[in-house]
Write a structure and sequence with these properties.
Blueprint: H1 10-26, E1 31-34, H2 39-50, E2 62-65, H3 70-77, E3 83-87, H4 93-105, E4 108-114, E5 125-129, H5 134-137, H6 139-155, H7 180-183, E6 186-194, E7 199-204, E8 207-212, E9 224-228, E10 231-237
Parallel strand pairs: 1-2, 1-3, 3-4, 4-5
Antiparallel strand pairs: 6-7, 6-9, 7-8, 9-10
Helix pairs in contact: 1-6, 2-6, 3-4
């Protein structure tokens, strides 16, 4: 999944999400299912993927996340390359906070819901119904059932699991000292711990690293910051 939300029709978004999930699972990802206040959806979604109800289908790693500490659990359990799938309204605070951290954690994001849509870019892919009753009338269940079926359809076509030849090339990494291009990159990171007024441990898609806090006032664990050349430049969200 890319870092910008698809803005096509619901069938197009569903196809994008299914292909992205198949590729992520093929690369060893775990799918984390989150639905605060609607935990039955998280459990149902996880069971759909982890239980091969049709002979010959794969059992795919999926975990339902629930409870007041769902964000804390995702923070320590997710790995780069994993996928977060949430079933919730656009105003659900825990889901919003988790989605905003996906880029810093290096995981893909998929948001399923109904009613007013989340802001553009809130998730990699948004599967949304205009009917606010969808989470209670079966509309959301239909969406993730289709997601499960189409993900397995992608598995049946091995060529789809490889990157498209027209996809942008992966960025070149430097084996030695950072070059001017690499060092000019601003990256989203989440502060894990503050060692003193000048140093902190942060999480980025590349892992945990130390950054300088000289340019940021009153940094706290959980803050999202922009990191550039080993320094936190500003707080994005507190």
């Amino acid at each position: 999944m890319g870092i910008l939300e698809r803005t096509g029709t619901l069938p197009d978004d569903l196809a994008d999400a299914s292909l992205a999930l198949a590729r992520a699972f093929g690369a060893g990802a775990t799918m984390w299912c989150l639905a605060p206040g609607l935990e039955a959806h998280a459990r149902h979604l996880a069971v759909e993927f982890v239980h091969p109800v049709i002979m010959g289908k794969r059992a795919l790693p999926a975990v339902a996340v629930a409870g007041a500490d769902a964000l804390a659990l995702l923070r320590v359990q997710t790995r780069p390359g994993d996928v977060l799938v949430a079933v919730a309204g656009a105003d659900e605070p825990t889901v919003g906070a988790a989605m905003r951290r996906c880029r810093a954690w290096g995981i893909a994001s998929l948001w399923i819901g109904a009613g007013p849509r989340p802001a553009p870019g809130a998730a990699d892919v948004v599967l949304w119904s205009d009917d606010p009753r969808a989470p209670y009338s079966g509309g959301a269940v239909l969406l993730y059932h289709l997601l499960w079926e189409l993900t397995h359809v992608c598995f049946e076509h091995a060529g789809l699991l490889r990157d498209h030849p027209d996809a942008p090339a992966a960025p070149v990494s430097c084996a030695d000292e950072p070059c001017i291009t690499c060092s000019d990159e601003g990256r989203l990171a989440e502060i894990l711990s503050v060692e003193d007024d000048r140093r902190a441990q942060v999480r980025t898609p590349a892992g945990v690293e130390a950054v300088d806090l000289s340019l940021v006032d009153d940094a706290r664990p959980g803050d999202l910051v922009i990191v550039h050349a080993g320094s936190a430049l500003s707080v994005v969200e507190r």
